[in-house]
Structure prediction request, 230 residues.
Amino acid sequence: MPDFSVIEKAISSVVAAPATLELLRDLHKQALTEPPYVSTDGQAESVALDRFVALDPDKCALVYILLRASRARFVVEAGTSFGLSTIYLALAVGQNARQEGSGSGKVIATENEPAKAARAREHWARAGQEVEQWIDLREGDLRETLKTNLPERVDFLLLDIWTPLAMPTLNLVKPRMTVGSLVVADNNIAAKTGYKDLVTYLENPENGFRITTAPYDGGLLVAVYVGVNV
Prediction:
């Protein structure tokens, strides 16, 4: 039986309406009871179609806190799946936008599988405008959907996706990053081989990033863009 206490610890870090917190609780329970999936462990990609493949609750809480602390308002999520982590992103973006008084902010979510995109939309609808209004879901191959109509700046990139797409995604998003923009990638230890190109790029100081790994299950890579010549 999964340890559901981690769910309560995670959602205690989040500011949200009671109905949204209950939704998060429900979705986390579903995600925790499914078999784990890592894109580089030999399982076929099709295996993931019926699974959440979601960030663990403690990782979701950290992402939410990083977003609030950095006042991020423009986020790209590579690998939305059933939209669980997207709820955390949207909550933080909406709260940051209101705090800044601009009313401007967006989570650009990406999902290649239509069935998963439909499920994600259902989940966001349950949360209502607290979440829905901040999300722009782009269906299809993100190597195409992220080519155009990105915000002038991207404050945060979440990579929770088939690892061969991690570096192509960063290539598309990096031109929009400014000093202080963050990159978070899930399972960088468990999927070390798949993330090799990404980590090599981020570890090279000439590319302007500083990188660390948070010691969560499977690893959670966190990188900050500090600019070049720093």
In short: Strands lie at 74-78, 106-111, 135-139, 154-159, 177-186, 209-214, 220-225. The longest helix spans residues 84-100.
